[in-house]
Write a sequence for this structure.
């Protein structure tokens, strides 16, 4: 990534395009940057990478038979947003996986559809949602203080509190007491 003005420019030009500004080859050629505008056909809207970093559009592949949209996968301004805002719903569908096999052609793609009954996550959860929950399916916590006490079998329990003498704290406390008592005396004594 590179900083240009007040924006980050992605390495693969996924958020800004470089356009040559002049046709004069002999002189220094300057380039202008134009933000990428994504057409989200599912929501019938457009958005610009200049104003919205979560601007995405569905991932599609063009084949000789037409355009094939990959269910749940999006393409965004930055690679991180592309990954986080995508869904894994395609991998739960045998039809979608067959489409991947067709797109990849001769490259082996030995993947079977996932079973949504084996996970607590919804098919429509984004990767970001699953990442916030650390991809943990279940959390088993079994804390037994009784077993710990029996295995250690302590005779008695003792703790020590170490306190370091601080001259600054002593001075602050003294001045606070002095200021408070002098203020109290002003109210009592006319």
């Amino acid at each position: 990534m590179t900083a240009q003005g007040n924006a980050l420019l992605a390495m693969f030009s996924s958020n800004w395009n470089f356009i040559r500004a002049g046709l004069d080859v002999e002189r220094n050629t300057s380039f202008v940057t134009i933000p990428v505008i994504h057409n989200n056909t599912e929501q019938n809207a457009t958005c610009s990478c200049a104003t919205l970093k979560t601007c995405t559009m569905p991932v599609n592949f063009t084949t000789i038979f037409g355009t094939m949209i990959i269910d749940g996968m999006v393409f965004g301004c930055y690679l991180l947003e592309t990954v986080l805002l995508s869904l894994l719903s395609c991998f739960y569908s045998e039809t979608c996986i067959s489409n991947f096999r067709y797109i990849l052609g001769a490259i082996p793609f030995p993947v079977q559809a996932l079973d949504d009954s084996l996970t607590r996550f919804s098919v429509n959860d984004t990767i970001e949602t699953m990442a916030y929950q650390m991809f943990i399916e279940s959390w088993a916590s079994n804390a037994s203080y009784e077993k710990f006490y029996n295995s250690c079998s302590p005779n008695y329990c003792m703790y020590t509190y170490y306190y370091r003498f601080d001259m600054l704290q002593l001075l602050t406390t003294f001045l606070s007491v002095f200021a408070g008592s002098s203020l109290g005396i002003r109210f009592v004594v006319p």
Q: What stands out?
A: The chain has one domain: 2-169. The radius of gyration is 32 Å. Residues 2-169 form one domain.
